[in-house]
Amino acid sequence: MIPSQRVSSLLSEFKRFAFKGNVVDLAIGVIIGGAFGKIVDSLVKHIIMPTVSVLLPGEQGYLAWKLTFNGKDIPYGLFLGEVVNFLIVAFALFLFTVKFLGWLSRSKQEEAAAPPPPTRDQELLTEIRDLLKKNAP
């Protein structure tokens, strides 16, 4: 095979791969997921954790919550914020995949379980069978 044909073939294969519906859908999902992550991060950092720090006793906000061990600070408040962030994202994904997609898969299973309507040949054979049963002695 000529090198220019190999390159052309490789480019056409890549084009088919890159512009398949699944790859584009995945890219859109990743972009929307990143935007959703930023929204949840902002919710945790600017609303939930400051509210928690107001409710708990202490003068400092959760960002300043630290343990000091051998002169080193361990900022556990930041860690708690990230844990809350993770839990919210995990819960949202759970709701979407189990409740929303689970609902879709159940309806598809119900459709698949329903038998297809009989063909015209099957209807005629059913009529003949019923007539034979009716006229049998």
UniProtKB/TrEMBL annotation:
<dbReference type="InterPro" id="IPR036019">
    <property type="entry name" value="MscL_channel"/>
</dbReference>
<keyword id="KW-0406">Ion transport</keyword>
<dbReference type="Pfam" id="PF01741">
    <property type="entry name" value="MscL"/>
</dbReference>
<keyword id="KW-0812">Transmembrane</keyword>
<dbReference type="InterPro" id="IPR037673">
    <property type="entry name" value="MSC/AndL"/>
</dbReference>
<keyword id="KW-0472">Membrane</keyword>
<comment type="similarity">
    <text>Belongs to the MscL family.</text>
</comment>
<feature type="transmembrane region" description="Helical">
    <location>
        <begin position="21"/>
        <end position="40"/>
    </location>
</feature>
<dbReference type="GO" id="GO:0005886">
    <property type="term" value="C:plasma membrane"/>
</dbReference>
<keyword id="KW-0407">Ion channel</keyword>
<keyword id="KW-1003">Cell membrane</keyword>
<keyword id="KW-0813">Transport</keyword>
<comment type="function">
    <text>Channel that opens in response to stretch forces in the membrane lipid bilayer. May participate in the regulation of osmotic pressure changes within the cell.</text>
</comment>
<feature type="transmembrane region" description="Helical">
    <location>
        <begin position="76"/>
        <end position="98"/>
    </location>
</feature>
<protein>
    <recommendedName>
        <fullName>Large-conductance mechanosensitive channel</fullName>
    </recommendedName>
</protein>
<keyword id="KW-0997">Cell inner membrane</keyword>
<dbReference type="GO" id="GO:0008381">
    <property type="term" value="F:mechanosensitive monoatomic ion channel activity"/>
</dbReference>
<keyword id="KW-1133">Transmembrane helix</keyword>
<comment type="subunit">
    <text>Homopentamer.</text>
</comment>
<dbReference type="InterPro" id="IPR001185">
    <property type="entry name" value="MS_channel"/>
</dbReference>
<dbReference type="InterPro" id="IPR019823">
    <property type="entry name" value="Mechanosensitive_channel_CS"/>
</dbReference>
